Every structure is written in structure tokens, then in C-alpha cells.
Amino acid sequence: ASRPAMLQSLGRKLFLPHRKSGSELLSRYYAADQELVRVAQQIKRLDADKQQDRVSELIGELKECQQRVMKLMLELMNELIPDRRHPKDFRMKFPDEVVQEGLEGQLWYASECLAAGSSILYREVEAESIRPLAIQVTREGEKTRRLLRDEASRSYFGAEPRANRRLLDQLALFDRILAEFELSYVSAMVPVKTMTEMDQLQEVAVLFSETAAWALAGGHIRRDDIDECEPTLMIVLPRLAVLHGLLVHPDGPLSTKDRPASKLCPLFRAFHSHLDRVRSFLGKLKQSDRDRLVRRLCLTESGDATDAEADVDADADRVAGLFKVIAGVADQIQSNYAWELRYLLRCVYNLHCSEAVDEAAASAAAATATLAVEEGLDAFDWQVTDSVQSASTSMVTAAATGAEASAVEPPAWVPDSASDVCTNRRCGQAFTITRRRHHCRACGGLFCSACTRARRALPVLGFDSPVRLCDACCVSAAAVNENNGDRA
């Protein structure tokens, strides 16, 4: 190469700024970090008393910038120190609404607020106890950011980040401290289960899994119900689990023999006396009556655990009385322990879902990824509005031409990690602990709950029952249904 060309190349490296479209993690991190610094400096220059609206707007931007920076920091940790990541098994004790994408970014913002002297409303004592840890998170986070910025500059000249031992150690330290703060902060904000409670819940999960296997073998539920996550399983499976636990597992998690109510799993603690009475009556039932009871429990009628004594003691129809009590206990679990029930059902789905369904989902994801690579697409360059338009056009075209439902395949879902905000252009709100992600079944895009309130059937895509749709796809689905009605 000529000398002028070499000088020109060196000049580009020295003087051209980092571009946000860079493919390297470090260059993308540098751009995101610079954006965060810019927003933070703007906030410092404003008068909070005179420009409250502008400050609030910039704080929202600051949170979004922190989310992006933290997301890239976590990706760098996975890339550079995959074997030194701090375990987060404690998350299984958290409620579902807490564990979500972007949690670390929210924790980072919370740590800065606590480190600056803020407190947690109605939890002042807890705030004081975790404030030293919050200060440590803020301090180590700044060190990590500084080292990553320096490493991003060095990487332009071919430096290998894995050779920077100081950076790797700092990433591991920050990961550990952030995990410790996460456990302490979440424990202060929401109820977190103890190890004893988790062990008891695991025993109930085993009971639910064995109940599902027994119900599948007996034909009480279908394999398709599990594969398709049929909503009726939320009613039927807990009822069958109560019956199965009382009949088949005398020493299992529902055992009341020589066990006080305080030793039972919290899900069944309030029904100790009811379970004890039901167990005694079940032993007196004939096999034909047990079969009749199972068939009734597979229906979706409601029960009443409060009428246990009156109904079970009635000799006219003991099966009906047992049904009311068992169904009442199971239905109370659904009402009072929604998170625990979701956890139990998720265990059942993961263990008993057909391998064909898993392989089909994996094949579809692989095909989508391969297509993106072949076409030179950026995996993170999601264009949901184009997907909405494409899916809507496909539905309307299929309905207008009288195509079969199988002619249009449901689109692949946009990954949860692809967006931190609602992809409805008129909304654009950031996802948080309370504003969660939802997928439109028609276009596969990511939206908040406010933008996916519509429910419509999509026979063209194979959904005969109403499913969640975004606003744009709801309009298209209405046109499809109207078109089908006109042809009929």
C-alpha cells in the first residue's frame, strides 16, 4: 500500500467517531455509553425547580440509555467471562412480574437513587440496610464503564479484550455485586420465598407432574392440551392433583397425617381440615364412584371449599360433595396463589410437552435465523411495522382468494431481547416490571398490554379461538372475518 493510503487509514482510526451501527460489542457499547454521558450532562445543566417537565423527560431518556448500556455490558460479560458469571438461582424465588428483560438496568437506576440519599417509600428501614450495597454498585459500575471505554478505544488498534485481565476481573466483580444488590433490593420490595417454601413448592411440582402423567395415561387430559397450553388445564390439573395426592401419595405434600397445618405447603395450609376429611371419605368410595368423581373434576364447574362439612356428610350424593370440596380447594389456589400455579403449570408444560412441538419450534427459529443471515439482515434490526403490514396483507389476501387456513403460516415471534420499548410507533413506552411484553399472534411483534387488548379468532392462521392481537392486526382480522362472512 502507498504511504498516503496508510496515512489516510490511520487518520480515519484516530479522528472518525465510533458509529452506532458498528457490529462489534465494544464499539456499540462505546456509542451507548457516550449517549448516556450526554443525557446525564444535560440533566446536570438544568434547573430542576424551573424546568421540571424537561427534567422528567430527560430522566426517562436516562433510564432508556442505562438499559441499553447495561444490556451491552451483560452481553460483554457473556462473551468475555462466560465461566465467571455469578449464579442467579435465587431468581426462582421471585414473582414472575419481577424477572424480566431489563431488570438489571432498573436495578442500576435504583442503586444510584439510593446512593444519592433517596429512600424507598414505606420501606425506609430496608432502604437504609441496602444503601451501602447500592453505593458499592454505583462505584464499581463507574469503574467498569471507564475500563470498557478505554478498552473500546484500544480495540480500534487490534487489542484483544480477553487479554486485559484487569477488565475481566472488574466485570466479574461488578456482576457479583449487582447480583447481591438484586437479591437484597427485590427482597425489600416484594415477598420472596424462603428455601423451605421453595422445597415445599418443588414437592408440589413433582405431584403435578405425576398427576399429568397419570391423567394422560388414563385419557383424562389430551397431549394436545399440554402442547397447546390449553387454558382449561389451569382448572382441571390442580383439581386432579388434589385427588391424586390424597389417593396415591399418603406421605406426599398433601398428607395431613401427623402433620400440623404449619408444616403444609402454603398453598394448602388453609385447607388442612378439608383435606383430612376428604382423604377419609375417598377411602370409602367404590372404584366406580372414584371414576365418576374424576370425570366431574375434569369439567370446569366451580366448587366451594367452605361447604365441606355439609356437603361431604350428605349421604344423597357423596361424589357431588367431594367434588365441591376438591374443586373449591383447587380453585382457591388459582385465586390466591396465581404465581405459584403458573410456576407449577410451567413445570408440567416443560416436562410433558411433546418433543415434536419443541423440534418444530426450534426448526422454525433456525429457519428464520438462517434466512436473516442469507439475506444479510441484522438480527437486531427489527421492523415490526413491516411485519404487521406483511401479516395483515397475507391475511386479507388469503381471505379474499378463499385460500385454506394452512396456506398462511403464523409468523415467527420477535425475540424478547430485540426491543426494550413497545413497538407501536404511537406508544413507544419502555417495558418495565409493571408494563410487560406481549406478542401479537398475527405479526409476532412485541407490544405492551395497552396495545394488545384486542382478541379475535384467526382461522386463516389456524387460531379458531380468540387470541391476542395488536391494534393494526385487529383491523385486518376484522376485515378477514367480514370477508369470510360475506362469502358464507
From TrEMBL:
Record Pfam families: FYVE (PF01363)
Keyword entries, A-Z: Coiled coil, Metal-binding, Zinc, Zinc-finger
Recorded GO MF terms: zinc ion binding
Cross-referenced InterPro entries: LST-2, Znf_FYVE, Znf_FYVE-rel, Znf_FYVE_PHD, Znf_RING/FYVE/PHD
Residues covered by the FYVE-type domain: 418-473
Lineage top rank: taxon: Eukaryota
The UniProt record lists the keyword Zinc-finger: yes
Annotated Gene Ontology cellular component terms: early endosome membrane
Residues in coiled coil: 48-75
Record's protein name: FYVE-type domain-containing protein
Organism: Macrostomum lignano
